[in-house]
């Protein structure tokens, strides 16, 4: 099963899972559902509506749309918290990706830890059974999040019998119980014996689960197909990842007022300074969900750091100096042609990433200040979401949002040096201050540092030369 995180509409970047969702615009989130036929295969004509469809000979996996529903709209962006919004808001902002997923035959849907207007989604009969199963006629299975039914009560697991009762009656078909599964089986069995849960509810769940398992061919081939495992991390895949990096970078500033644009940078230069906590750190440029749950700084996997990529790209005559956090004395005693400052957030995932201030890691802001006050500089921000840039923007000659480029740092250098042009646009509003949040495109009071959809472009050097 492959879980599709990008269906979450992030409404507040303080939310630590914000980088797991693609956009604040539900129309763009809807395009993410194209991953479903990509995983499961294209639905043939005349296939019954809203039934799961899995027939992709190459990979044969079940897609899982998550997290149903409204998890990106929680108050103050607190993970697993409460989304306060009326039905129309829920339907128009958070639901479109699910409408689309069901239409495209998604096999499973995972429920969100969060609540809607104070009611835990894992016990919400109206949305799981009433809306998803009865109204949308979803015929795949609904799965819980891990230990999520425990959290129906506060504190978690305070009344597990109640958690089992409320979640199964709400319409959850498969429950993730990582540890106390004997207790789960005992409680569920007892609730059936006492007729608190009718057998028809179990029949519904079993029918849905078997439907997906038959389509996956689990009974014919119960073991995983490892025939493509040798291709993981192949050069071909790395090239594709590098292309994705090139296309996802967003150029936010290029030249101070009245100045020439700084980018693309010249490959020929005497001395180039590279600085910042994220310039030579694979773990930092990958972020969370890499090797470890929360990722980790350092050389945690094979890849090209941005520093290495810069060295690979510049003219052999150019001298590249790396200093993570240079002081004024160092800066004044060298005659740098320009500087590239690469700073950002440290790796995180889920609630570990919840942030009240959205600041980058120390000493990021002082590195920006010191370098940009002395040398012409481009700042590259590595982050899963918009972070606080003010009041440092005016010091920078250029600013690039590189998000989490992953292992293929060469994609960053490709665009910095104009082998390719900048084309990326902001999929989220970039706030000035955290006090403005939540602030999304379409809001009455919309005063961002950079609006949704913003992004400057540059022309590849080859095309400049040809003009
Ligand atoms: C736990 O929940 C059940 C309902 O499933 C209820 O009958 C029981 O009284 C609850 N127990 C406690 C200690 O609250
Ligand atoms: C990671 O690898 C690079 C390149 O080999 C090296 O320059 C750097 O010092 C290493 N970093 C750590 C934290 O080991």
Secondary structure layout:
Elements lengths: L1 E3 L21 H6 L3 H6 L22 E6 L13 E2 L3 H8 L1 H8 L4 E4 L3 E2 L2 E2 L4 H11 L5 E3 L16 H11 L10 H13 L5 H18 L18 H14 L1 E5 L16 E5 L6 H5 L19 H8 L5 E4 L5 H5 L5 E7 L19 H11 L2 E6 L15 E4 L8 H7 L44 H6 L1
Parallel strand pairs: 1-2, 2-4, 3-5, 4-7, 9-10, 9-11, 11-12, 12-13
Antiparallel strand pairs: 5-6, 8-13
Helix pairs in contact: 5-6, 6-7, 9-14, 11-14
The chain binds 2-acetamido-2-deoxy-beta-D-glucopyranose (2 copies).
Q: Any overview of this molecule?
A:
The protein is of the alpha/beta class and 467 residues long. It has two domains: 2-216, TIM Barrel, CATH 3.20.20; 234-466, 3-Layer(aba) Sandwich (Rossmann fold). It is 29% helix and 11% strand. The chain has a six-stranded mixed β-sheet with strand order 8-13-12-11-9-10, sandwiched between helices. The protein has a four-stranded parallel β-sheet with strand order 1-2-4-7. A hairpin with a 2-residue loop joins strand 5 and strand 6. Helix 5 (125-135) runs parallel beside helix 6 (160-170). The radius of gyration is 25 Å and the shape is elongated. The model has no long low-confidence stretch (mean pLDDT 96). Bound molecules: 2-acetamido-2-deoxy-beta-D-glucopyranose (2 copies). InterPro entries: Cellulose_Degrad_GH3, GH, Glyco_hydro_3_C, Glyco_hydro_3_C_sf, Glyco_hydro_3_N, Glyco_hydro_3_N_sf. Belongs to the glycosyl hydrolase 3 family. One of its GO terms (molecular function) is beta-glucosidase activity.
């Amino acid at each position: 099963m492959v879980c599709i995180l990008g269906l979450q509409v992030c409404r507040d970047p303080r939310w630590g899972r914000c980088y797991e969702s693609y956009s604040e615009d539900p129309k763009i989130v809807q395009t993410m559902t194209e991953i479903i036929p990509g995983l499961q295969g294209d639905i043939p004509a005349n296939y019954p509506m809203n039934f799961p469809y899995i027939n992709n000979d190459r990979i044969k996996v079940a897609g899982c749309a998550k997290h149903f529903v409204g998890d990106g709209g929680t108050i103050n962006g607190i993970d697993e918290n409460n989304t306060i919004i009326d039905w129309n808001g829920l339907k128009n902002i958070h639901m479109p990706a699910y409408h689309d997923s069901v239409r495209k035959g998604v096999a499973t849907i995972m429920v969100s830890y969060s609540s809607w207007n104070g009611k835990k989604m894992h016990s919400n009969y109206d949305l799981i059974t009433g809306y998803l199963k009865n109204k949308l006629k979803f015929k795949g299975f609904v799965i819980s999040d891990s230990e999520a039914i425990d959290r129906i009560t506060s504190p978690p697991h305070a009344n597990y019998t109640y958690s089992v009762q409320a979640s199964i009656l709400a319409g959850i078909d498969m429950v993730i119980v990582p540890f106390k599964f004997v207790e789960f089986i005992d409680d569920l069995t007892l609730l059936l014996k006492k007729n608190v849960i009718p057998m028809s509810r179990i029949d519904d769940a079993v029918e849905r689960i078997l439907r997906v398992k038959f389509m996956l061919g689990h009974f014919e081939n119960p073991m995983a197909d490892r025939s493509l495992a040798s291709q993981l991390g192949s050069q071909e895949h790395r090239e594709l990842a590098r292309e994705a990096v090139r296309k996802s970078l967003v150029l936010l500033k290029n030249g101070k007022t009245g100045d020439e644009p700084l980018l693309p940078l010249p490959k020929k230069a005497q001395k180039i300074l590279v600085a910042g906590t994220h310039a030579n750190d694979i773990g930092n440029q990958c972020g969370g969900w890499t090797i470890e749950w929360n990722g980790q700084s350092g050389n945690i996997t094979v890849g090209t750091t941005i520093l290495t990529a810069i060295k690979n790209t510049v003219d052999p005559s150019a001298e590249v100096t790396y200093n993570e956090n240079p002081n004024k004395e160092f800066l004044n005693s060298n005659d740098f042609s320009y500087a590239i400052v690469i700073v950002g957030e440290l790796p995180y995932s889920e609630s570990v990433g919840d942030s009240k201030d959205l600041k980058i890691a120390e000493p990021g802001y002082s590195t920006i200040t010191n370098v940009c006050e002395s040398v012409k500089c481009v700042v590259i921000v590595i982050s899963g979401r918009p972070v606080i840039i003010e009041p440092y923007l005016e010091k920078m000659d250029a600013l690039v949002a590189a998000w989490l480029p992953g292992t293929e740092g060469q994609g960053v250098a490709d665009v910095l040096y104009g082998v390719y042009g900048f084309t990326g646009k902001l999929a989220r509003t970039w706030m000035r201050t955290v006090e403005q949040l939540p602030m999304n495109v379409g809001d009455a009071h919309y005063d961002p540092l950079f609006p949704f959809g913003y992004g400057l472009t540059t022309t590849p050097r080859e095309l400049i030369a040809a003009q």
